[in-house]
Design a protein that fits this description.
Layout lengths: L1 H40 L6 H26 L7 H15 L4 H27 L5 H19 L9 H8 L1 E2 L3 E2 H18 L2 H18 L4 H27 L6 H17 L11 H20 L7 H21 L4 H4 L2
Antiparallel strand pairs: 1-2
Helix pairs in contact: 1-11, 2-7, 2-9, 2-10, 2-11, 3-4, 3-5, 3-9, 3-10, 4-5, 4-9, 6-9, 8-9, 10-11, 10-12
Pfam family, one: BPD_transp_2
Protein name: ABC transporter permease
Membrane topology: Multi-pass membrane protein
């Protein structure tokens, strides 16, 4: 009787933890399974170069997905994430040059500019009281316009030593891009998720009216969320500059990364209704979504069919995120 009494709270705690993180755990399992399938069928087999190439491509989408997840947790959506990436890429091609020290200073200015872009989004939503989808559609056009002013034609450069340090292998074994990704997520997401603003962000997505009555700092939490989202999109643009050694105002790339980030967020277990999920899950959702694209090449699918197949995956991912909501009779059941 005594053992059962003491065991029950432990089981309840484990059950609660599993329910809270099951989306993230599912995303990790899916990403690992798809990546193993990719390596098993790759023509070159398992090699460090294959892993590094896949990691570099996944890291770029992972940063944008992390940025998107922050906003989606509050029940919003950021349609400017891809364009902040493009703007930051073009700005970095001007500023991240010279030696390592000047390049680091330039990288700091790029991140500051992207933080400002996210803050503008937040001000439009919080102070201007615009719907997130409307505000970010408008700002995405503005950010793309700035990118075009900076780079009407592809060009520029980046400090090669700094770029190689981020995109190469550590000790000729482990992809440096994954370390860079883990460090950035740890520095941004972990403190935010454990802060008062992080808890307020989840409360906003769960039930904003109830969160308001509880006295949480909702406006400041939203501003922080959008600002950090812009920052992570800026990190993605900076990483793209490290990866490509150049800047380009590519409208198609910005639009694609915005859409793919939404798919990655849903695959990562983040609810489009808000209040559930984590940035970590979105990162693994991005890895899974990118690996699906790589599998199309591995299985030699006709390039003409690849956009259609990726569109179906995107549709399936968004539909998958809506399935649990269909069976919910009361909103309180979705946000226990």
């Amino acid at each position: 009787m005594t053992d059962r009494t003491f065991a029950t709270p432990d089981r309840a705690a484990w059950r609660f933890a599993f329910q809270r993180h099951r989306g993230t755990l599912a995303a990790i399992g899916l990403a690992v399974a798809l990546f193993v399938l990719y390596l098993a069928n790759h023509p070159a087999g398992f090699s460090l170069n294959v892993v590094q190439t896949a990691a570099n491509k996944s890291t770029l989408l992972a940063f944008v997905a992390a940025a998107q997840a922050l906003v989606v947790i509050t029940g919003g959506i950021d349609l400017s994430a891809g364009m902040i990436l493009v703007f930051s890429n073009c700005l970095a091609s001007w500023l991240v040059v010279g030696g390592v020290v000047p390049a680091l200073g330039g990288a700091g200015l790029v991140l500051l500019a992207s933080l400002g872009c996210g803050l503008i989004n937040g001000l439009l939503v919080v102070v201007g009281r615009l719907q997130p989808i409307v505000a970010t559609i408008a700002t995405s056009a503005c950010y793309y316009g700035l990118a075009l002013l900076l780079r009407p034609f592809p060009g520029g450069g980046v400090d090669e030593d700094l770029a190689d340090a981020v995109t190469s292998k550590i000790g000729d074994v482990f992809p440096a891009s994954l370390v860079f990704l883990a460090v950035v997520i740890a520095l941004v997401w972990v403190p935010f998720s454990r802060s008062l603003y992080g808890r307020a962000a989840y409360a906003i997505g769960s039930a904003e009216s109830a969160a308001y009555m509880s006295g949480l700092p909702l406006q400041r939490a939203k501003l922080a969320t959008y600002a950090l989202s812009g920052l992570l999109s800026g990190v993605a643009g900076l990483y793209l500059t490290f990866f490509s050694y150049t800047g380009e105002a590519a409208y198609a790339s910005g639009s694609a990364y915005t859409l793919y980030s939404i798919a990655a967020v849903v695959l990562g277990g983040v609810s489009l209704a808000g209040g559930r999920g984590s940035v970590v899950g979105a990162v693994f959702g991005a890895i899974a979504f990118r690996t699906v694209g790589d599998l199309l090449f591995v299985f030699d699918l006709d390039p003409l069919w690849q956009p259609l197949f990726q569109g179906l995956v995107l549709l399936a991912a968004v539909s998958l995120g809506a399935i649990p909501l269909i069976s919910v009779r009361n909103r309180l059941e979705w946000f226990p």
